[in-house]
């Protein structure tokens, strides 16, 4: 067997394992507004972060295959707490974090969300990876850079996920991928691969499921 065919076989096995993980009945577990409300950290956790309205809820719904599991809204800042999702006998829990950026809410409330998220990132022992979602139409913004800096300092592994990739043309998508990789190349906690996704078209969903399954079983 050639090296290429062996790599293809391994990838196919990972894709299938990810598919099986998300055939389970995924559901809402709990919402956390304060650190003392966090569930026991007996499961590996994978979190989703991103600017308000980047498409976090839509991506979680696509990954789990459960329409409306994570509530979506055109109003930035609707997700105000850490929202946990799980499935029976799953080794991993998904955590939807409050969007950062231009949340339409009082500053005091935004500050409270920010403190919660940052404290969670710094102190959660079983947090294995944060998927940092970037709108492929706009690229990495200052808020994203600040969050990546925090993750670097906290030594929390993170991976860039480009969302809404179907909204741009193929050459533009290629340029965005290369520009993103260039920006994260020297960041110590950044995963060296970018996943391109479209919740609407299903692009990249199998790959991110496979990645989550691999993380959960490491």
TrEMBL record:
Single GO BP term:
division septum assembly
Q: Has the keyword Signal been applied to this entry?
A: no
List the cofactors: Mg(2+)
Q: State if Methyltransferase is listed as a keyword.
A: no
Keyword entries, A-Z: Cell cycle, Cell division, GTP-binding, Magnesium, Metal-binding, Nucleotide-binding, Septation
HAMAP family on file = GTPase_EngB (MF_00321)
The role this protein plays is: Necessary for normal cell division and for the maintenance of normal septation.
Q: Identify this protein by name.
A: Probable GTP-binding protein EngB
- State the organism named in the record: Stappia taiwanensis
């Amino acid at each position: 067997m050639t090296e290429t065919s062996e790599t293809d076989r391994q990838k196919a096995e990972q894709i299938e394992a990810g598919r099986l993980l998300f055939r389970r009945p995924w559901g809402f577990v709990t919402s956390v507004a304060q650190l003392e409300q966090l569930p026991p950290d007996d499961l590996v956790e994978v979190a989703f972060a991103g600017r308000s309205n980047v498409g976090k809820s839509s991506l979680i719904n696509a990954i789990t295959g459960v329409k409306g599991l994570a509530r979506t809204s055109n109003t930035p800042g609707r997700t105000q707490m850490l929202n946990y999702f799980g499935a029976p006998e799953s080794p991993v829990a998904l955590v939807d974090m409050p969007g950062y950026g231009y949340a339409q809410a009082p500053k005091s409330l935004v500050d409270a969300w920010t403190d919660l998220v940052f404290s969670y990132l710094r102190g959660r022992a079983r947090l294995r990876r944060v998927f940092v979602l970037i709108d492929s139409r706009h690229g990495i913004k200052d808020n994203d850079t600040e969050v990546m800096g925090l993750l670097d300092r906290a030594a929390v592994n993170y991976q860039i996920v480009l969302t809404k990739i179907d909204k741009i043309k193929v050459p533009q998508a290629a340029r965005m991928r290369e520009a993103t990789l260039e920006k994260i190349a020297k960041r110590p906690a950044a995963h060296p691969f970018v996943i391109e996704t479209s919740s609407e078209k299903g692009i990249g969903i199998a790959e991110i499921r496979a990645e989550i399954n691999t993380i959960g079983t490491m």
